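Issue 218. Parser rejects a valid record. Input:
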Amino acid sequence: MSTQRRTTSPVVALAVLLVGTFMASLDVAVVNVAAPAIEADLGTSGAALQLIVAGYSVAYASLLIVGARLGGDHGQRRLFLLGLAGFTEASLLCGLAWTPEVLIGARVLQGMAAAAMTPQVIAVIQLAYDGAARARALALNATIVAAGVVAGLVLGGALVSADIAGASWRPVFLVNVPIGVVLLAVGWLTLPDTRSPVVRRLDLSGAALLSLTVLLVIVPLVFGHDAGWAAWTWACLAAAVPAGLVLVAHLRRTRDPVVDLALLGRPAVSRNLLGLAATMVAYGGFLLALTLYLQQGRGDSALECGLTFVPYAAGFAVVSLAMPAVPATVARWLVPGGLVACAAAYAAMGAGGWSLPMELPLLAVAGAGFGAGFTPMMTRVMAEVPGAAAPDASGLLSTTVQLAYAVGVATLGSVFLDGGLDALPTVVEAAGLLALLAAGLCAFEDRRAARAATAAAQVSS
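Output the parser choked on:
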């Protein structure tokens, strides 16, 4: 590892990193509530509107590991600032877009820039912070990654409803521009220089195979429902299997692969990644289904819909940020216990807890339980890898989170869209089962870690 601090407080540097993460996470969902206004203003077709909404996530998820690798080889500070500059410029182009085609292209550029920017954050935290400071920083990042999506719904609804200077949906994107300019100036002065000790050959073939495999999965899942699950969607999903096998074979025989498969051989890494994937699939599907239910079934405005999620986001944030201070002996039962509480809240909502007196407390419990599991799982993944592997682990972690979220939106979202408003209980109960799966994985990993610690203590004594 090579680390050189630059000038001012690490608190300021961390704030730059986290605000950048927040902007990227926000833009996963902020456009959803602006979609009707965009359609009315630009006269977009249904297919074009879908590309505007999903183009960002597709580019983002497919390039995260490549962005992480480039940051490790050429410096996280450099890649973060380049990604932030690209994200800011693409946001300006989105806000000024005069045709649907321009907006689609700008959204894809936004996603590519976010993929260069966000994986650097976890890597920098892992390399430049130690002990309790690292744990707090990882908890803050985890909170922002998940809560930023809900914040996007609230902020998007507020900006569209305000219709600032008659600009309708455009401030949803333009708000990123002044923030991005300030972050670039402050980040240039404060971000530490971190990178891998040895510059590795860029595995172009592996990067291409990885992006192809991710795209073959995410594109049909994102666009499949609106395409009526046409033959091409199933062909893409089928092709993802041989593409994935070719990718694994390539990674095993390549000296400096774009993804180090040895990371997945660590039990704590693989199990926590599976747990994170389960919770994010649940989160993505739950968020979409409830958003549509509130607006289509209950007639809530975009802003009212976003505000409904505030208890969920608040519960998540409070518990997520508190978890680093919880003793390990307590966390061993609190992490799976929190996920069980999340599953129970989902089950209660699925059983009919949608009257106003019940829904807000249940949302708070679900968010708190989610936060009790999500942050420790992210932290445990990074705690299990050496500093030199931080960029690869960061890319793998970020890709897992974003891809699982997209899978949740596509799969559980399709269940809701196919079944209509009556399908909400099914989606919410499925989310509960996924939370239970994550709880089981966490409990199993905790027992394995406890046995390993006991054996190590016996050997040392």
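Fixed in the parser; the record now loads. The chain has three domains: 1-188, 203-257, 262-450.
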